[in-house]
Amino acid sequence: MARPNTKPASQQPKAPDFLAWHVIDKGERSFWNKVGAAWRHKDDKGYTLQLETVPINGRIVLRQPLEEPDRADGQNENGRG
């Protein structure tokens, strides 16, 4: 039996806890392509993984998103863009 959707329709989506990356190793280089995201369950006992595409080779790596800079002018703290 499916669980009913109890999330209010007006609730903003939560930022993901992890981003999912498809990684392919070619010689000494690795190529990373973002393929989805993962969100922690409220009870901290699991994650929901949402993939936008399903790779047929390589591996999927979950990494925490990088912190976004607070500056709106597109420059980082040392004044470089």
Automatic annotation (TrEMBL):
Protein name as catalogued: Uncharacterized protein
Species of origin reads Tranquillimonas rosea
